[in-house]
Amino acid sequence: MEIINPHDKFFKETFSIKKNVIDFLQGTFPPEILKKLDLSTLTQDNNSYIDEELKEHFSDIVYTCFCKDKELRITLLFEHKSYAVACPYLQLMKYLLKIWEANSKQSQRLMPVIPVILYHGKDAWKVRRFRDYFEGIDEVFFRFIPEFEYLLTDLSCYSNEEIKDRAFRRVSLQITMLLMRNIYNDKILGDKLKAFFEIGKQYFEEGEGLKFLESVIRYLYYASDIEEERVIDTLKEISEEGGRLSMTIAARLIEKGKMAGRAEGKVEGKVEGRVEGRIEGLKEAIEIGLELKYGVEGLRLLERISKIVVIEKLEAIKEAVKISKNMEEIEKLL
Residue ranges of the Transposase (putative) YhgA-like domain (predicted)? Predict the structure, then answer.
């Protein structure tokens, strides 16, 4: 059975629309970078840089554009996170290398890559320099550590009013950011649902808007605890077509076995998405711990660890990595 990550799917659907990405860049990028980019040349890069090792970690949303003042192409790497990551640099560097390897194979000059992380998890995201993860080293060794930055958009730093009235202009991006910001708080989400839908009242009457609305409904059904009936009734107040669409999607999901009431399909999609995120986070923490503690040698255990899907076992391995004196102690748990 395919595991569904509703947050990642919703993110991909939204950021696969060029106009949404331009609006996001204009609302979040530092002015000194934004003024250098020719957004009229923005193009989605459909080449996948993801191999088996990386496919669990990355959303594979990549755009390129040219600078305004010179013939220089820039790559924009968009990564979504619904949980805090201990050391995002290790993952990002793998992706950067894949992009630069592709440049080299195609006899292109290496393109600068701007990594962009969109975060909407419960825990605080702590931004640190990569060198800060190398504890206890002397400053003389800093030059041997790769140094780059990523741009973080942490939705918890925005109020609902800022998202709606100041940060973003496109209706679809406003609604996406509002839903992702509040998805873990069913009380606020339920109270604000009608207000969020009203933003797109006219938009939902268009073809593009209805397609987006379908993504919104699926996201709410899978990722939140809001009752299906409440979503349907709220949409009916906003848009007659939206109400019909929500009922149709609910019926389809029930038919496919994805949502047979609260206890079956709804839980299947939503819980699996959250479990997947927890499993992914634990595997990532283990990988980072092994690499920092045992170097490349520690990574030989990753293939066996990648096959583990029991959270309790992964948590035990994570703790073992912290206190282990050698890799044999970890291997006993595999």
Answer: 5-189
